[in-house]
Structure formats: structure tokens, C-alpha cells
Write a structure and sequence with these properties.
With 230 residues, this protein is α/β, with parallel strands linked by helices. The chain is 44% helix and 15% strand.
């Protein structure tokens, strides 16, 4: 995709409004890493029972793609996206496996072009004005700010977003988020949704402690409800 060609539609987003609206409405994305595909369905069901129906399944293990397929097939109420996408091949495989969207930790022109050509919902990772500049040249308006806390937190995001405010950009925020700083990020209008791995921590998944994961999901939902009512 030629960046110059996309300038004529610069006010549009390559991330579908209906998916972004749903993510923004829920405000919380469970970030998961699965070593065993047999854990996928009970984990997804525990999250749904706790009130979380959106997830980013990180593609970091051999079980990731099979886990995604199982969740899409057996827990249809879960909006299942795939994270840690590093190549156009992975992007295509995620789409073909039924992923609702894809996310990357960083910015890759190859992936910007591939997602546009596939017409697949995709959020590239950014952490600098230069990253945002490149992403917007290709028509992307829904971006992943990562790693949030270690790169300067909410103040850094506000500063790098300031020159682009007229483009009405929105962000998924991940990296170092937890129940304590969640309300701070959600107070920023440009933040549509935050993601966290604390809800379904690896040790809880390994021990199949679905009750604890359900309870953490419910607790996070309560914090979001309180933050939005302030």
C-alpha cells in the first residue's frame, strides 16, 4: 500500500468501528499466554463468567494458534484477538484461524501493508511520535501503546499523542498495567482500552485455578465501573 494513496482517506481508520466500540465499551482486554491448548476453553469461560469478553492471546508458544481456534469455536461470546504478531504470515494465519483482530508489540511497515491488503483489523505498536507518524501515514488510527509504564506511562502517551490530537487517535495500552493504575489510564480520553496479564497470570493458568481468574476478572470489572462513574 502506497502511503501517498492513503492520505485521501486519512480521516478513516483501518480498524473497524464496531470492534473498537466494543473494546472501548468493555475497556479491559485480558492478555494471555497459553502453553497448553487444553487450557484455552476453560480459561476463556472463566473470564466470561467474571465479565471480561475480550482477549489478546499472545502468539508466543506452539499452542497459541490451536488455543485460538478452540476459543473461537467453543466460546463465541469471547472477542478473541491475537497479539505478538511479528510477520505477515502470522497475520494471515491468525485471520484464517478466526481472530477478530491482530496486535503487534512494535511498528512494521510490512505488517501495516499486509493488514491493509488483507482488510484485517490490526493495531500496530507505538511508543514515539515517529511511530505514530508512520502508522497514520498508512491510515491507522487505533494503535497499541507499549510498553506503557516503562516508557513513561500516561504522561508520555499524552505528550506523544498531542501533535496528532486532530486525527482523533485511540489507543490500546499494555505493559505494566494493574488494578492500581488502571483508573489513571482510563481517565485519558484517547485511551480506548487497557490490557493486562495480571487477570490470568501464568501461575494461575498452570494450576488451572479458573475460580481465581474469574474472581480477578470480576474485581477488575468493578474497578472499571467505579472509575467511569467518578
Amino acid at each position: 500500500m502506497n502511503p501517498a494513496a492513503i492520505e485521501t482517506v486519512s480521516s478513516k481508520s483501518l480498524f473497524p468501528a464496531e470492534i473498537e466500540t466494543r473494546l472501548a465499551g468493555e475497556a479491559l482486554l485480558a492478555v494471555l499466554t497459553l502453553d497448553d491448548e487444553s487450557d484455552a476453553v476453560p480459561l476463556a469461560r472463566a473470564l466470561v463468567e467474571g465479565g471480561i469478553t475480550s482477549m489478546e492471546l499472545a502468539w508466543r508458544t506452539p499452542a497459541s494458534l490451536a488455543a485460538l481456534k478452540a476459543i473461537v469455536r467453543e466460546v463465541p461470546e469471547m472477542l478473541a484477538g491475537v497479539g505478538t504478531i511479528l510477520s505477515p504470515g502470522q497475520l494471515k494465519a491468525a485471520r484464517d484461524a478466526g481472530a477478530a483482530f491482530g496486535v503487534s508489540p512494535g511498528l512494521s511497515v510490512n505488517l501495516l501493508e499486509a493488514a491493509g491488503e488483507m482488510n484485517f483489523p490490526y493495531a500496530p505498536g507505538i511508543m514515539s511520535p515517529s511511530d505514530i507518524h508512520v502508522a497514520t501515514e498508512y491510515g491507522y488510527r487505533f494503535l497499541k501503546f507499549f510498553p506503557a509504564e516503562s516508557s513513561g506511562g500516561i504522561n508520555h502517551l499524552k505528550n506523544i499523542n498531542a501533535p496528532f490530537k486532530h486525527l482523533n487517535l485511540h489507543y490500546i495500552v499494555l505493559g505494566g498495567l494493574n488494578e492500581t493504575n488502571l483508573p489513571l489510564y482510563l481517565s485519558e480520553p484517547a485511551v480506548s482500552v487497557i490490557g493486562g496479564s495480571w487477570i490470568a497470570a501464568p501461575d494461575l493458568i498452570r494450576s488451572n485455578d479458573w475460580d481465581a481468574i474469574r474472581d480477578r476478572a470480576a474485581s477488575a470489572r468493578q474497578i472499571i465501573a467505579q472509575a467511569r462513574n467518578q
